């Protein structure tokens, strides 16, 4: 694995508002504590999410962007970018690969955190089609698109964005995690971030207890003591 001291910039690529907060906001908070620059890239605005049938789609998109900005702030992240793809319709297209590769070349991250592109057969929720598509496109953008100057040559020609090699990727939501981050000291901030997504969680009874038990279970799987919380990832070396 990449030594922690060599991680100076992190890019988190997700499908919807709230994905980063469920999957990795605790790890993000710990990176921010160490002075690492973290950028969020959201492929959709989450306009097909929520429980409120009276809002039209555009109202939902705006609300969810606002919620994500607040959630990012709760863990110290201020650079949040949206690609505005339609929620529920994401595919691994060349356009999406180029759009992610563009941001990789702009941000020049050492580490990318994104969704696992394979279906998880133990739980359905992590494998939303948008999640799998974004994970696949992000991995394609890491290798080969962002590092190959001949991939999407307009990025160099028109935008002056030189090739960039991401050295490691952490995948969320897979069934075979091999790296756990002890997020106990950042758990309050992760919960605050999650609570920023009122349109998604305000109707869920016992939400905080559900989240705590989920991440306590990860900690147990990671072999941590009782009272600890952990986030799990599959690490992919991409250097
Ligand atoms: Zn999602």
Automatic annotation (TrEMBL):
In the record, biological process GO terms are:
glycoside metabolic process
> Carries keyword Zinc?
yes
Keyword annotations from UniProtKB, A to Z = Zinc
Please tell me whether the keyword Magnesium is annotated for this protein.
no
Q: Which GO terms describe its molecular function?
A: hydrolase activity, acting on carbon-nitrogen (but not peptide) bonds, in linear amides
PANTHER family referenced in this protein's UniProt entry, alphabetically = LMBE FAMILY PROTEIN, N-ACETYLGLUCOSAMINYL-PHOSPHATIDYLINOSITOL DE-N-ACETYLASE-RELATED
Kindly provide the name given to this protein in its UniProt entry. Answer: N-acetylglucosaminyl deacetylase, LmbE family
């Amino acid at each position: 694995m990449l030594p922690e001291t060599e991680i100076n910039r992190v890019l988190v690529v997700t499908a919807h508002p709230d994905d980063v907060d469920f999957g990795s906001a605790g790890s993000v908070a710990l990176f921010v504590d160490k002075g690492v620059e973290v950028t969020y890239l959201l492929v959709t605005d989450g306009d097909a999410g929520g429980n409120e049938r009276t809002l039209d789609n555009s109202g939902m998109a705006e609300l969810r962007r606002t919620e994500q900005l607040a959630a990012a702030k709760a863990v110290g992240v201020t650079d949040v970018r949206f690609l505005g793809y339609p929620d529920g319709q994401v595919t691994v297209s060349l356009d999406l690969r180029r759009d992610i590769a563009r941001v990789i070349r702009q941000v020049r991250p050492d580490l990318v955190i994104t969704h696992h592109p394979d279906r998880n057969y133990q739980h359905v929720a992590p494998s939303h089609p948008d999640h799998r598509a974004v994970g696949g496109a992000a991995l394609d953008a890491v290798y080969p698109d962002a590092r190959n100057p001949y991939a999407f040559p307009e990025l160099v020609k028109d935008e002056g964005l030189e090739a960039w090699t991401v050295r490691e990727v952490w995948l969320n939501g897979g069934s075979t995690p091999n790296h756990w981050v002890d997020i106990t000291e950042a758990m309050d901030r992760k919960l605050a971030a999650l609570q920023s997504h009122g349109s998604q969680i305000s109707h869920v009874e016992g939400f905080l207890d559900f989240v705590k038990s989920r991440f306590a279970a990860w900690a147990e799987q990671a072999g941590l003591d009782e009272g600890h919380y952990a986030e799990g990832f599959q690490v992919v070396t991409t250097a």
